[in-house]
Design brief:
Helix content: 25-40%
Strand order of the largest sheet: 5-4-7-8-9
Largest sheet: 5 strands, antiparallel
Strand content: 15-25%
Mean pLDDT: 72
Low-confidence stretches: 134-173
Number of strands: 10
Radius of gyration: 23 Å
Order of helices and strands: HEEHEEHEEEEEEH
Shape: elongated
Number of helices: 4
Length: 191
C-alpha cells in the first residue's frame, strides 16, 4: 500500500509541475517580413517611405526577428551604425547579410539601423531604422531625408535560417523568477 501511495503522490506532483509549466510558458516572438508583401528593394517613386511606414505600424520586441527577402545577385542588407545610416555609408558594416533570405534576431533593446548593400540604394530610401523599447514597443522611424527625420526609430529585420524562438515566462507567482519555482518543484519531486 505504501508503494501505491508513493506512486500516486509522485504522479500528482508530476502533473502539477507539468500544469505549472503550461501556465508559465508562452512563445511571444514574431518573424516580421520587412516591407510586408514587398521584398527588400528600392521603394517605388510613388511610395518612397515604405520602410519608415512599415516600421511605424509594427511593434517589435526582444525575441522577434526581421526577415529580409531579396534577390541575392542584386542586393544585400547591412546592419550599420546610426552615423552610417544617416550618411548611407556602406563601408565597414556591423553585419553583412547577402543570401537573399536574411534573418536578423532581435536580442536586445535599442535602435537598429539597416541599409541596402548596393551602392546608391540607401540614398533612394532603401533603409530601415527600428527601435525596440523596454516594454516591447518600437519607436516611430523615418527613412526620409535627414531634414525630415524626427530622431525616433523603428524598422524590420533579416531572414536566413530558421529563427530562434524566444520564450517568455509569465509567473503564476509574481515577483518570483520562473527558474526558482522550477527548481523548487524539482526538489519537491525528488523527496
Amino acid at each position: 500500500m505504501g508503494r501505491v501511495l508513493q506512486r500516486i503522490q509522485f504522479s500528482t506532483a508530476f502533473y502539477l509541475l507539468l500544469l505549472l509549466f503550461c501556465f508559465q510558458s508562452q512563445v511571444l516572438c514574431i518573424v516580421y517580413k520587412v516591407g510586408d508583401l514587398s521584398s527588400w528593394g528600392l521603394p517605388p517613386s510613388s511610395n518612397k517611405q515604405i520602410y519608415s511606414l512599415w516600421s511605424k505600424y509594427n511593434t517589435l520586441k526582444v525575441g522577434d526577428s526581421l526577415f529580409f527577402l531579396y534577390p541575392p545577385s542584386e542586393d544585400s542588407v547591412l546592419q550599420v551604425t546610426k552615423e552610417a545610416y544617416g550618411s548611407c555609408n556602406i563601408e565597414n558594416p556591423i553585419l553583412r547579410m547577402n543570401n537573399g533570405n536574411s534573418l536578423f534576431n532581435i536580442t536586445s533593446t535599442g535602435e537598429f539601423y539597416f541599409i541596402s548593400g548596393t551602392q546608391g540604394h540607401c540614398e533612394k530610401y532603401q533603409k530601415l531604422r527600428v527601435g525596440v523599447g523596454v516594454n516591447g514597443s518600437s519607436t516611430d522611424s523615418s527613412a526620409s531625408a535627414p531634414s525630415s527625420s524626427d530622431g525616433s526609430s523603428s524598422y524590420p529585420t533579416v531572414f536566413g535560417s530558421i529563427p530562434i524562438q524566444a520564450a517568455t515566462s509569465a509567473s503564476v507567482f509574481p515577483g518570483i523568477p520562473g527558474f526558482v519555482i522550477r527548481t523548487a518543484m524539482i526538489l519537491v519531486l525528488m523527496l
